[in-house]
Amino acid sequence: MDFNTKLINWYSVKKRKLPWRKTRNPYHIWLSEIILQQTQVKQGLPYYDAFVANYPTVFDLAEASESDILKLWQGLGYYSRARNLHASAKYIVNELKGEFPDNYKDLLKLKGVGDYTASAIASIAFNEVAAVVDGNVYRVLSRYFGIDTPINSTEGIKEFKALASSLIDHNQPATYNQAIMEFGALQCKPKNPDCSICPFQDSCVAIQKQKVDLLPIKLKKTKVTVKYFNYLVFIDQHKKTLFEKRTKKGIWQQLYQFPLIESEKSLTANEFHLLNFDAAALTTESFDYSLYNETDIVHKLSHQHLYTKFWIIEVKSLPKEAILVNSLSKYPAPVLISDFIDNFSF
Q1: In which element (H, E) is residue 87 found?
Q2: Is 33 among the residues known to form the active site?
Protein backbone atom coordinates (compact mmCIF):
# COMPACT_ATOMS: atom_id res chain seq x y z
CA MET A 1 0.00 0.00 0.00
CA ASP A 2 1.51 3.36 -1.03
CA PHE A 3 2.06 6.46 1.14
CA ASN A 4 -1.01 8.33 -0.12
CA THR A 5 -3.42 5.43 0.36
CA LYS A 6 -2.22 4.69 3.89
CA LEU A 7 -2.41 8.35 4.81
CA ILE A 8 -5.91 8.90 3.46
CA ASN A 9 -7.13 5.65 5.05
CA TRP A 10 -5.76 6.83 8.41
CA TYR A 11 -7.46 10.20 7.94
CA SER A 12 -10.84 8.69 7.14
CA VAL A 13 -10.82 7.04 10.57
CA LYS A 14 -8.93 9.49 12.79
CA LYS A 15 -9.84 12.96 11.52
CA ARG A 16 -11.38 15.46 13.92
CA LYS A 17 -14.84 16.84 13.28
CA LEU A 18 -14.18 20.52 12.66
CA PRO A 19 -16.67 23.07 11.29
CA TRP A 20 -14.51 24.22 8.40
CA ARG A 21 -14.33 20.63 7.15
CA LYS A 22 -18.09 20.62 6.60
CA THR A 23 -17.96 23.30 3.93
CA ARG A 24 -16.31 24.29 0.66
CA ASN A 25 -17.15 27.94 1.29
CA PRO A 26 -13.83 29.70 0.57
CA TYR A 27 -14.64 32.52 2.98
CA HIS A 28 -15.02 30.13 5.91
CA ILE A 29 -11.96 28.12 4.90
CA TRP A 30 -9.92 31.32 4.57
CA LEU A 31 -11.06 32.44 8.03
CA SER A 32 -10.04 29.12 9.56
CA GLU A 33 -6.62 29.13 7.88
CA ILE A 34 -5.78 32.68 8.96
CA ILE A 35 -6.91 32.00 12.54
CA LEU A 36 -4.92 28.77 12.69
CA GLN A 37 -1.68 30.43 11.59
CA GLN A 38 0.52 30.25 14.72
CA THR A 39 -2.50 28.95 16.68
CA GLN A 40 -3.57 25.46 17.73
CA VAL A 41 -7.02 24.19 16.78
CA LYS A 42 -8.23 24.04 20.38
CA GLN A 43 -7.47 27.72 20.91
CA GLY A 44 -8.59 28.88 17.48
CA LEU A 45 -11.95 27.08 17.29
CA PRO A 46 -13.95 29.50 19.50
CA TYR A 47 -12.50 32.45 17.56
CA TYR A 48 -13.55 30.87 14.28
CA ASP A 49 -17.07 30.37 15.61
CA ALA A 50 -17.18 33.96 16.84
CA PHE A 51 -16.04 35.40 13.50
CA VAL A 52 -18.53 33.32 11.51
CA ALA A 53 -21.31 34.36 13.90
CA ASN A 54 -20.42 38.06 13.87
CA TYR A 55 -19.37 38.30 10.23
CA PRO A 56 -21.19 35.56 8.29
CA THR A 57 -20.04 36.88 4.90
CA VAL A 58 -16.99 38.64 3.54
CA PHE A 59 -19.21 41.72 3.05
CA ASP A 60 -19.94 41.82 6.79
CA LEU A 61 -16.24 41.54 7.59
CA ALA A 62 -15.31 44.27 5.13
CA GLU A 63 -17.88 46.66 6.62
CA ALA A 64 -16.77 46.10 10.22
CA SER A 65 -14.52 48.58 11.98
CA GLU A 66 -10.90 47.58 12.55
CA SER A 67 -11.39 48.21 16.26
CA ASP A 68 -14.27 45.72 16.45
CA ILE A 69 -12.26 43.09 14.57
CA LEU A 70 -9.24 43.56 16.83
CA LYS A 71 -11.49 43.30 19.88
CA LEU A 72 -12.91 39.99 18.63
CA TRP A 73 -9.36 38.80 17.88
CA GLN A 74 -8.15 39.76 21.36
CA GLY A 75 -6.16 36.94 22.97
CA LEU A 76 -5.07 35.22 19.74
CA GLY A 77 -1.86 37.22 19.33
CA TYR A 78 -0.05 38.05 16.08
CA TYR A 79 -2.55 40.86 15.53
CA SER A 80 -1.25 41.63 12.05
CA ARG A 81 -3.31 38.60 10.99
CA ALA A 82 -6.50 40.40 11.98
CA ARG A 83 -5.49 43.59 10.22
CA ASN A 84 -4.58 41.63 7.08
CA LEU A 85 -7.88 39.76 7.30
CA HIS A 86 -9.77 43.04 7.31
CA ALA A 87 -7.69 44.52 4.47
CA SER A 88 -8.22 41.42 2.33
CA ALA A 89 -11.97 41.42 3.00
CA LYS A 90 -12.19 45.01 1.77
CA TYR A 91 -10.09 44.13 -1.27
CA ILE A 92 -12.39 41.20 -2.14
CA VAL A 93 -15.51 43.33 -1.74
CA ASN A 94 -14.27 46.54 -3.36
CA GLU A 95 -11.93 45.24 -6.06
CA LEU A 96 -13.34 41.77 -6.79
CA LYS A 97 -17.03 42.61 -6.24
CA GLY A 98 -17.29 40.04 -3.47
CA GLU A 99 -16.03 37.15 -5.61
CA PHE A 100 -13.49 35.15 -3.63
CA PRO A 101 -10.28 34.27 -5.57
CA ASP A 102 -10.67 30.70 -6.79
CA ASN A 103 -7.08 29.66 -7.51
CA TYR A 104 -3.65 29.55 -5.90
CA LYS A 105 -2.15 32.37 -7.97
CA ASP A 106 -4.93 34.86 -7.22
CA LEU A 107 -5.17 33.85 -3.56
CA LEU A 108 -1.54 34.90 -3.14
CA LYS A 109 -2.66 38.48 -3.88
CA LEU A 110 -4.57 38.61 -0.59
CA LYS A 111 -2.74 40.35 2.21
CA GLY A 112 -1.47 37.87 4.78
CA VAL A 113 -1.76 34.89 2.43
CA GLY A 114 1.47 33.07 1.57
CA ASP A 115 2.30 29.80 -0.14
CA TYR A 116 0.88 27.53 2.56
CA THR A 117 -2.40 29.41 3.06
CA ALA A 118 -2.99 29.84 -0.68
CA SER A 119 -2.34 26.13 -1.24
CA ALA A 120 -4.68 25.14 1.58
CA ILE A 121 -7.58 27.32 0.39
CA ALA A 122 -7.09 26.45 -3.28
CA SER A 123 -7.07 22.71 -2.60
CA ILE A 124 -9.76 22.52 0.08
CA ALA A 125 -12.24 25.00 -1.41
CA PHE A 126 -11.56 24.50 -5.13
CA ASN A 127 -9.85 21.08 -5.29
CA GLU A 128 -6.79 22.56 -6.98
CA VAL A 129 -3.66 20.38 -6.95
CA ALA A 130 -1.59 22.64 -4.70
CA ALA A 131 0.53 20.93 -2.04
CA VAL A 132 0.53 22.39 1.47
CA VAL A 133 3.70 22.61 3.51
CA ASP A 134 3.21 23.71 7.12
CA GLY A 135 4.96 22.71 10.35
CA ASN A 136 3.06 19.44 10.49
CA VAL A 137 3.93 18.54 6.91
CA TYR A 138 7.61 19.40 7.39
CA ARG A 139 7.70 17.06 10.37
CA VAL A 140 5.94 14.15 8.66
CA LEU A 141 8.04 14.32 5.50
CA SER A 142 11.31 14.89 7.32
CA ARG A 143 10.79 11.86 9.54
CA TYR A 144 9.26 9.52 6.97
CA PHE A 145 11.97 10.16 4.35
CA GLY A 146 14.79 10.81 6.83
CA ILE A 147 15.54 14.30 5.48
CA ASP A 148 17.96 16.34 7.60
CA THR A 149 17.94 19.53 5.51
CA PRO A 150 16.92 22.38 7.87
CA ILE A 151 13.26 23.12 7.27
CA ASN A 152 13.73 26.89 7.69
CA SER A 153 16.64 27.16 5.25
CA THR A 154 16.20 28.34 1.67
CA GLU A 155 17.33 24.92 0.43
CA GLY A 156 14.97 23.13 2.81
CA ILE A 157 11.92 25.20 1.87
CA LYS A 158 12.46 24.38 -1.82
CA GLU A 159 13.23 20.71 -1.16
CA PHE A 160 10.17 20.04 0.99
CA LYS A 161 7.83 21.98 -1.33
CA ALA A 162 9.05 19.92 -4.29
CA LEU A 163 8.64 16.68 -2.35
CA ALA A 164 5.16 17.63 -1.15
CA SER A 165 4.15 18.52 -4.72
CA SER A 166 5.35 15.14 -5.97
CA LEU A 167 3.34 13.27 -3.35
CA ILE A 168 -0.03 15.06 -3.44
CA ASP A 169 -2.93 12.95 -4.68
CA HIS A 170 -4.11 14.55 -7.93
CA ASN A 171 -7.52 12.89 -7.69
CA GLN A 172 -8.31 14.16 -4.20
CA PRO A 173 -5.95 17.02 -3.30
CA ALA A 174 -8.27 18.46 -0.66
CA THR A 175 -8.47 15.21 1.26
CA TYR A 176 -4.76 14.49 0.90
CA ASN A 177 -3.66 17.93 2.14
CA GLN A 178 -5.95 17.77 5.15
CA ALA A 179 -4.83 14.20 5.85
CA ILE A 180 -1.12 14.96 5.99
CA MET A 181 -1.65 18.03 8.18
CA GLU A 182 -3.94 16.09 10.52
CA PHE A 183 -1.46 13.22 10.67
CA GLY A 184 1.25 15.61 11.82
CA ALA A 185 -1.04 17.20 14.38
CA LEU A 186 -2.43 13.99 15.92
CA GLN A 187 0.00 11.14 15.21
CA CYS A 188 3.43 12.42 14.17
CA LYS A 189 3.52 14.96 17.00
CA PRO A 190 6.55 17.14 17.77
CA LYS A 191 7.37 15.37 21.03
CA ASN A 192 6.95 11.76 22.12
CA PRO A 193 4.80 10.47 19.24
CA ASP A 194 3.50 6.92 19.74
CA CYS A 195 5.28 5.25 16.84
CA SER A 196 3.98 1.82 17.91
CA ILE A 197 0.57 2.67 16.43
CA CYS A 198 1.85 4.53 13.37
CA PRO A 199 0.68 3.07 10.04
CA PHE A 200 4.13 3.91 8.62
CA GLN A 201 6.22 2.21 11.30
CA ASP A 202 7.58 -0.35 8.79
CA SER A 203 8.66 2.25 6.24
CA CYS A 204 9.51 5.41 8.21
CA VAL A 205 13.24 6.17 8.03
CA ALA A 206 13.23 8.08 11.33
CA ILE A 207 11.77 5.06 13.14
CA GLN A 208 14.21 2.66 11.52
CA LYS A 209 17.23 4.85 12.28
CA GLN A 210 15.95 6.01 15.68
CA LYS A 211 15.88 9.65 14.60
CA VAL A 212 12.31 10.51 15.50
CA ASP A 213 13.42 12.89 18.25
CA LEU A 214 16.08 14.45 16.01
CA LEU A 215 13.92 15.35 13.03
CA PRO A 216 13.02 17.76 11.61
CA ILE A 217 16.11 19.95 11.87
CA LYS A 218 15.68 23.68 12.25
CA LEU A 219 18.31 26.40 12.09
CA LYS A 220 18.99 28.24 15.34
CA LYS A 221 16.17 30.57 16.34
CA THR A 222 16.41 34.33 16.23
CA LYS A 223 17.80 35.78 19.44
CA VAL A 224 15.12 36.76 21.93
CA THR A 225 15.13 40.41 23.01
CA VAL A 226 14.35 41.30 26.62
CA LYS A 227 12.44 44.53 27.26
CA TYR A 228 11.24 46.22 30.44
CA PHE A 229 7.78 47.79 30.20
CA ASN A 230 6.29 50.22 32.71
CA TYR A 231 2.61 50.99 32.25
CA LEU A 232 1.32 54.15 33.92
CA VAL A 233 -2.23 53.52 35.13
CA PHE A 234 -3.57 56.98 35.92
CA ILE A 235 -6.80 57.23 37.93
CA ASP A 236 -8.48 60.51 38.82
CA GLN A 237 -11.27 61.38 41.22
CA HIS A 238 -13.84 60.95 38.45
CA LYS A 239 -12.77 57.35 37.89
CA LYS A 240 -11.14 58.22 34.59
CA THR A 241 -7.88 56.99 33.12
CA LEU A 242 -5.66 57.42 30.07
CA PHE A 243 -5.80 54.73 27.37
CA GLU A 244 -4.00 55.26 24.10
CA LYS A 245 -3.71 53.53 20.74
CA ARG A 246 -0.40 52.07 19.60
CA THR A 247 -0.01 53.65 16.19
CA LYS A 248 3.62 52.81 15.45
CA LYS A 249 4.47 49.67 13.53
CA GLY A 250 5.49 46.68 15.58
CA ILE A 251 3.78 44.50 18.14
CA TRP A 252 0.18 45.32 19.01
CA GLN A 253 -0.24 48.01 16.36
CA GLN A 254 -3.69 49.66 16.61
CA LEU A 255 -4.36 48.07 20.02
CA TYR A 256 -4.85 50.14 23.15
CA GLN A 257 -2.67 50.42 26.23
CA PHE A 258 -1.96 52.59 29.25
CA PRO A 259 0.84 55.13 28.72
CA LEU A 260 4.06 53.16 28.40
CA ILE A 261 7.63 53.91 29.38
CA GLU A 262 10.43 51.45 28.67
CA SER A 263 13.34 51.22 31.08
CA GLU A 264 16.77 49.62 30.91
CA LYS A 265 16.03 47.34 33.85
CA SER A 266 13.24 46.24 36.15
CA LEU A 267 12.48 49.10 38.54
CA THR A 268 11.55 48.96 42.21
CA ALA A 269 9.04 51.26 43.91
CA ASN A 270 11.93 53.37 45.21
CA GLU A 271 13.12 53.91 41.64
CA PHE A 272 9.85 55.43 40.42
CA HIS A 273 11.63 58.73 39.84
CA LEU A 274 13.55 57.07 36.99
CA LEU A 275 10.32 56.97 34.98
CA ASN A 276 10.62 60.21 33.05
CA PHE A 277 7.10 61.46 32.39
CA ASP A 278 5.67 64.94 32.52
CA ALA A 279 3.31 65.02 35.50
CA ALA A 280 2.68 68.73 34.98
CA ALA A 281 1.02 68.00 31.67
CA LEU A 282 -1.44 65.70 33.38
CA THR A 283 -2.44 67.63 36.45
CA THR A 284 -1.42 70.68 38.40
CA GLU A 285 -2.02 68.78 41.62
CA SER A 286 0.35 66.45 43.41
CA PHE A 287 -0.13 62.74 42.88
CA ASP A 288 0.24 59.49 44.77
CA TYR A 289 1.66 56.35 43.25
CA SER A 290 2.03 52.68 44.08
CA LEU A 291 3.45 49.64 42.35
CA TYR A 292 0.79 47.10 41.46
CA ASN A 293 3.16 44.16 41.05
CA GLU A 294 6.51 43.93 42.85
CA THR A 295 7.45 40.96 40.68
CA ASP A 296 7.57 41.49 36.93
CA ILE A 297 4.80 39.97 34.86
CA VAL A 298 6.70 38.19 32.10
CA HIS A 299 4.92 38.14 28.75
CA LYS A 300 6.65 36.00 26.13
CA LEU A 301 6.32 36.72 22.43
CA SER A 302 8.10 34.91 19.61
CA HIS A 303 11.14 37.21 19.61
CA GLN A 304 10.59 39.31 22.71
CA HIS A 305 10.21 38.72 26.43
CA LEU A 306 8.47 41.62 28.13
CA TYR A 307 9.13 42.17 31.84
CA THR A 308 6.24 44.33 32.90
CA LYS A 309 5.23 46.47 35.85
CA PHE A 310 2.01 48.43 36.33
CA TRP A 311 2.30 51.71 38.24
CA ILE A 312 -0.91 53.06 39.77
CA ILE A 313 -0.88 56.86 39.75
CA GLU A 314 -3.71 58.66 41.54
CA VAL A 315 -4.34 62.26 40.48
CA LYS A 316 -7.06 64.82 41.03
CA SER A 317 -7.86 65.35 37.35
CA LEU A 318 -6.80 64.20 33.90
CA PRO A 319 -6.91 65.80 30.43
CA LYS A 320 -10.13 65.76 28.42
CA GLU A 321 -9.06 62.69 26.40
CA ALA A 322 -9.28 60.57 29.55
CA ILE A 323 -11.94 57.84 29.51
CA LEU A 324 -14.03 56.23 32.24
CA VAL A 325 -12.41 53.13 33.69
CA ASN A 326 -15.64 51.17 33.27
CA SER A 327 -15.36 51.61 29.49
CA LEU A 328 -11.89 50.04 29.22
CA SER A 329 -13.26 46.64 28.25
CA LYS A 330 -14.72 48.11 25.04
CA TYR A 331 -11.29 48.74 23.58
CA PRO A 332 -9.14 46.08 21.86
CA ALA A 333 -6.05 45.52 23.97
CA PRO A 334 -3.21 43.00 24.25
CA VAL A 335 -3.86 40.11 26.62
CA LEU A 336 -1.21 41.54 28.95
CA ILE A 337 -3.29 44.71 29.37
CA SER A 338 -6.66 42.95 29.29
CA ASP A 339 -5.66 40.60 32.11
CA PHE A 340 -4.59 43.55 34.25
CA ILE A 341 -7.92 45.31 33.64
CA ASP A 342 -9.80 42.13 34.61
CA ASN A 343 -7.78 41.66 37.81
CA PHE A 344 -7.33 45.20 39.07
CA SER A 345 -10.02 46.80 41.22
CA PHE A 346 -10.45 50.28 39.80
Answers
A1: helix 80-94
A2: yes
Domain boundaries defined on the chain? 3-208, 225-343
Enter the pTM of the model: 0.87
Query: To the nearest 10°, the Cα dihedral for 252, 254, 260, 264?
Result: 40
Asked whether the domain spanning 225-343 has the same topology as the one spanning 3-208, the reply is: no
Residue among 273, 315, 308, 271 nearest 292 (CA): 308
Return the higher-pLDDT residue of 277 and 193: 193
Q: Residue 211: which of 161, 153, 144, 163 has the closest Cα?
A: 144
How far apart, in whole angstroms, are the C-alpha atoms of residue 134 and residue 124? 15
Say which residues have a Cβ less than 8 Å from residue 156's Cβ, sequence separation at least 6: 149, 150
Residues 142-159 have pLDDT tens digits of 999 999 999 999 999 999
Q: How confident is the model at residue 305 (pLDDT cuts 50, 70, 90)?
A: very high
Contacts of 178 (CB under 8 A, 6+ apart): 11, 15, 21, 124
> CA-CA distance, 262 to 231, in Å (whole number)?
9
Residue range 2-39, pLDDT digits in tens: 899 999 999 999 999 999 999 999 999 999 999 999 89
Is residue 252 within 8 A of residue 259, CB to CB? The reply is no
Among the four given CATH numbers 3.90.79.10, 1.20.1420.30, 3.40.190.10, 1.10.287.110, the one describing domain 225-343: 3.90.79.10
Q: Domain spanning 3-208: which superfamily?
A: Hypothetical protein; domain 2 (1.10.340.30)
Catalytic residue among 33, 99, 128, 264: 33
Q: Which pLDDT value is given to residue 222?
A: 75
Residue 334 near residue 253, CB atoms below 8 Å: no
